[in-house]
Give the backbone structure.
Amino acid sequence: MKVETSIFFDTITINAGASAALVLERARKVGINLRDAGDGRLGISCDETTQPEHIKALWRCVSPDDARLAALEAKLDGASTIPASLQRSGAFLTAAVFHAHRSETDLLRYMRRLSDMDLALDRTMIPLGSCTMKLNATAEMIPITWPEFGALHPFAPADQTEGYHELFAILEHALCAVSGYDAVSLQPNSGAQGEYAGLLAIRGYHQANGQSERDVCLIPASAHGTNPASAQMVGMRVVVTACDAAGNVDLEDLRKKIAQHEGRIAALMLTYPSTHGVFEEAVVEICDLVHEAGGQVYLDGANMNAQVGLARPGLYGADVSHFNLHKTFCIPHGGGGPGMGPIGVKAHLAPHLPVVPRRVMPLPSRQRLSVQHRSCRSRSPMC
């Protein structure tokens, strides 16, 4: 048994050789997951929750010699293993604010003064578009404090995360049911990442069809401001289409832009309802025009809460959308994050969804979703 790591903060790698499988088995039996790095090498990570008894339990998985452990423990001096070349040498926390509040009461009052400077829904209207369309109740945020949710490691073994996988499956099927899409990826962690992932799926679809030259993304002036940024990030050229006096997409200008870029249309990014608060009455015709031009329709889902139960994007012509779960479905989103922006797609885009392999849980039989949505394919990441 050899410790390979000489410089470390919270993670080391040991070489257990032929004993690696045995150590892994012993560790799991006492409730400890180690990283199998292959070739007999095991990764061990600690954090602020690690206690001496955890270290002793791990030691016994490697060696039953408690006497040697006690001898090593007696030699501990608490010296840092971080070399001087990697340690901070300059001053830090030098701003006056870090030294002005010397008691808990002073600090509390300082934080309250800061909060009084902020805009909040209990004081005024927040002029931030769709972000004002959500208000998470305390009861909805309580579960995130449960260790079963908040203390689960992202790479915990699949047989220890069956509850999470069941939640994933239920959520995926529910999103398909309410949106009219055929497949969902839970991988994007925000609306912006959802836009990016959705456009990558569209780009991958065109490339698979031998149409890599399609690089124009049409974006109405009423769309969300993140849309052009996302389009440029995936290498598309942004072409803005006009709106009429009532805030609707100007169909004549849309037809003109489509004709100008014939054969190059990759996508249209449509916000429905728009940032003007308008439900495009011609949304079906808009989608048809883009499809006839060989493009795909990305429907921005930031305002999806205005549609749930009334309309399904996948049924009136959209090909892909992101869902801001922290807006439409009130998942915790304190302090600006973490958010959640999974994407739903029609079947032809499903092969181009982002994929991190995991064991897929079937939809529990007790869930009574419509049969026509049971074919929703799971493409979400391992938890």
